[in-house]
Amino acid sequence: MKAVQFSRFGGPEVLEIVERPTPQPGPGEVLVRVRAAGVNYFETLMRRKLYAVTPELPMVPGVEVAGEIEAVGEGVDAALRGARVAVPMFAVGRPNGGYAEYLAVDAASVVTLPDGLSFEHAVALLVPGLTALHLVRRSLPQGRTVLVTAAAGGVGSLLLQLARRAGAVRVIAVAGGAEKLDAAHVLGADFGVDYREPGWAARVREATGGRGADIVYDTVGGTVTRACLDALAPAGELVFAALGRYELTVAELEGMFFRNQSLKGFALLPLLTPESLRADLAELFGLAAAGTLTVTVGGRYRLDQAAEAHRVLEERRSTGKIVLMP
Hints:
Blueprint: E1 2-5, E2 16-19, E3 29-39, H1 41-47, E4 65-72, E5 84-87, E6 102-106, E7 111-112, H2 119-124, H3 127-138, E8 145-148, H4 154-165, E9 170-175, H5 178-186, E10 191-194, H6 200-207, E11 213-218, H7 223-230, E12 232-240, H8 250-258, E13 262-265, H9 274-289, E14 297-301, H10 306-314, E15 321-324
Parallel strand pairs: 8-9, 8-11, 9-10, 11-12, 12-13, 14-15
Antiparallel strand pairs: 1-2, 3-4, 3-6, 3-15, 4-5, 5-7
């Protein structure tokens, strides 16, 4: 089978197509023919050795796939052959291997897809969908003004919709450029600002009568977080979900304390349990299949275009989810 791997750290050019033996399902396993594999920003950080966890090399990235069960191992119901499934690899102890044509996984780890939900939309609801769902649960938006960074991205585009469904009275989108802000407005944002414009936090305060946002969901980090503080209301909550990109100083944290503001950390994996994972995905898949939740796929690439997919994501030229289609 074909797979994408990197054997050294560096730019997108280190990603290469390799031939690997097609895995065979062992006892209790199924062989999934991958039809869509998600590309995540943290994978670009891993490739550059900038993530919180440094992977062993060589590495085949990818922690979320969707496809069809092609074969089953000993002890697995043969009726599963041909089933359309998603595999949330990141949640079941498989931290890599998704950028490939086939994947052998524990049969208990696959989640059946409802009719009408495409493979690429299913992938877009794994890491991004679960992240958005749990961010909303981390700080409940009902009756509050919320601000979503990277609002046209894979997480942000879902988060602003879920925040609205959870009762946010106003959703403010932060994104780079008019096209992305237009996309956020279509998905339900009330107001949008371009983070590339100096002093954009002042526009947020103006739009909220000088108060600012009650909740800021920050998935970007870096200098954007500092501007988010300027856009945060007194007693507001900054939910930080940009692992590895934290740059706030002690002085900035002390300023938050004086304004009765709170900083909440966010890491997805500790929030997932085997019991809740299927229920959460069933909820997301059901909303998307019913057309209640809009899933945006910003680009579809072949395996041999993985480097370009990473480049587009790193340069923030995409809206929605980037997907590889083996």
